[in-house]
Amino acid sequence: MTKRNLIASLFLIGFALLAGCRAAPGPEAPESPSPAPVETPAPATPSPTPEPDPVEEALSTMTTEEKVGQLLIAGFYGTQAGEEVRSYIQDLHVGGVILYGRNMESAGQLLELTNGLKALAGDGIPLLISTDQEGGLVERMPPEVHRLPNAYHFGQIDDPEARMNACFTLGQTLAAQCATFGINMDFAPVMDIWSNPDNTVIGERAFGSDAATVTGAANETALGILSGGVIPVAKHFPGHGDTETDSHLGLPVVDKTKEELLDFELRPFRQAIDTTCVFGTYGGDTSIPAIMVGHILVSQIDPERPASLSPAVVTGLLREELGFDGVVVTDDLTMGAVTQSYGLGEAAVLAVEAGCDLLLVCHEEGSVEEAYTALLEAVDSGRLSQDRLDQSVRRILTLKQDYGVTSDPVEAPDLEALNALVDAAW
């Protein structure tokens, strides 16, 4: 399957070359030898003026309040771009929003909502408009859109080539569903390996129960999403498949050594980071653009903090050892795995200290404001340095720039064509 480059280079640098000139020799004197010609050195070629970096230019003009807001992906209630979400976008300057079923009544309403969100962003930094559209157990589409089966359905196709083709098509279909309604980031695919049969929170959301199947199928799906113009977010690092506790309710524990994780749970993520060079044909990088870290206690790496709040996991394992330099996203900080042990504000600060960039704050009224206030106070007090804040904001702005995130409205969808695409995917 040919993987084509879908994004052109953002900048072109022109060079002006000045030609040197040579002095002409004087007329020949008949009675004396001609002097040796004297060459005038060519003038030095001036260095080209560097083109401005739009990310650095934007960063240099932002206030601390605007930078802090960019770290947050906000959940909200209601089906219209009303006062709650207006405040998030225009007062708190959030980097994005996440949509759930509670925000979707119909295809027309969803389109009106996403266009309304973009209008609220206006000429400012565009929003990441995100959702969890996996298909199957986790569907985030209005009722008029046909349903897809679970990832497991695609991962269990016997013929390897047919499986990879089907997973790529699945990714393209998920992207089409999202893009049709103006959604530019999808928290998919699941890269967890369903190795524990008692695991109910992952189950058939996974592509399979062995590392080889999940590695190939999940990465091909991610490529399909990416090729459809939507940002995929691989989840749930470092692996939620060998757990029994639902992290929405409590803190799951994975009691494995780093070596065991590298040999099994981390294999799909390692391929997405290191060897899925096809990603580079789209975004100019060799790595998947974003990874979600789960609320999982990896007891032999950090016995105290869940992965999403752990410097040992996020900075030590994901960034330094595996070499990931993209955007790190937390799972929802209002989940029970976090709230049972931490206040929301403290959890938000700990997540940034651990090395995360985007923080999901999805439920409970007042949660977004609480996280924002705690982060702002941490920066003002010096607990979070401006340099650390800038690192995350730079990654977020670069992600938006590289993947063409804009505030342009989306036109009314052709639902018949979209549903035909969905039906053909399986």
Structure notes:
The protein has a single domain (69-424), classed as TIM Barrel. 40% of the residues lie in helices and 8% in strands. Helix 1 (54-61) packs across helix 15 (386-402), helix 2 crosses helix 14 and helix 7 (211-227) packs across helix 9. The longest helix is centred in the middle third of the chain and has 21 residues, at 160-180. It is globular, with a radius of gyration of 26 Å. It has 16 helices and ten strands. With 426 residues, the chain is an alpha/beta fold. The model is unreliable at 1-33 and 276-285 (pLDDT under 50). Helix 3 (83-91) links the parallel strand 1 (72-75) and strand 2 (96-99). The strands form two sheets. The protein has an eight-stranded parallel sheet. Strands 6-8 form a two-stranded parallel sheet. Residues 27-52 have a biased composition (Pro residues). One of its GO terms (biological process) is peptidoglycan turnover. It is an enzyme of class 3 (hydrolase). Belongs to the glycosyl hydrolase 3 family. Residues 1-23 form the signal peptide.
